[in-house]
């Protein structure tokens, strides 16, 4: 059986397509429609990824997130919500969430985010992990980055850029999205700020022997590339 994913969503017309899509990907998927049921399920069964809606009937999803972490849940938490404000995203991450997906969203994007979360939490390659020495590991909750067992010291902006690139590994992330998500959609400064941050990030990763590379795609944005096997 594949990795366990728990969907916490009280609207059936949203939950059912999610469950079906994830099951087709080979995941062992559970579904509950309230916060308390989610907390009970986390105690009863090992769960690698929790997909959590904020607008639940019995308690706010942020409270579920907070209680799950307080109870020792160490899996990945992805918040799914119609609340589009930046404040909710920041608060959600402060409460212990690892990722944030705003409604409406594409099912393909959800699948990619779940795969990224499993890689980042080490669940993607099974217990114990087969991560090569120097492989990149990101602890989103603690905002820390490691090359193998060695921590890579990053600034807040460098960490935010890397987290977005890692969540879209091997895909191009546009300069506009990085600027909007890391700085602010109302940022009026030079986009050279992004280039400087990318340059410092590359230097720090390379100096620690990280095997993934941050690659510029001319005129578009940047991509975090996985190492080529055997290279």
UniProtKB/TrEMBL annotation:
OmpR/PhoB-type domain residues: 127-226
Keyword Isomerase: no
Feature: DNA-binding region: 127-226
Stored Pfam families: Response_reg, Trans_reg_C
InterPro entries assigned to the protein according to its UniProt record, in alphabetical order: CheY-like_superfamily (IPR011006), OmpR/PhoB-type_DNA-bd (IPR001867), Sig_transdc_resp-reg_C-effctor (IPR016032), Sig_transdc_resp-reg_receiver (IPR001789), WalR-like (IPR039420), WH-like_DNA-bd_sf (IPR036388)
Residues in Response regulatory domain copies: 4-118
Signal peptide: none
Keyword hit for rRNA-binding: no
Keyword tags: DNA-binding, Phosphoprotein, Two-component regulatory system
CDD domains the UniProt entry points to: trans_reg_C
Residue positions where 4-aspartylphosphate is found in the record: 53
PANTHER family attached to this UniProt entry: PHOSPHATE REGULON TRANSCRIPTIONAL REGULATORY PROTEIN PHOB, REGULATOR OF RPOS
Name the record gives this protein: Response regulator transcription factor
Native organism: Nocardioides plantarum
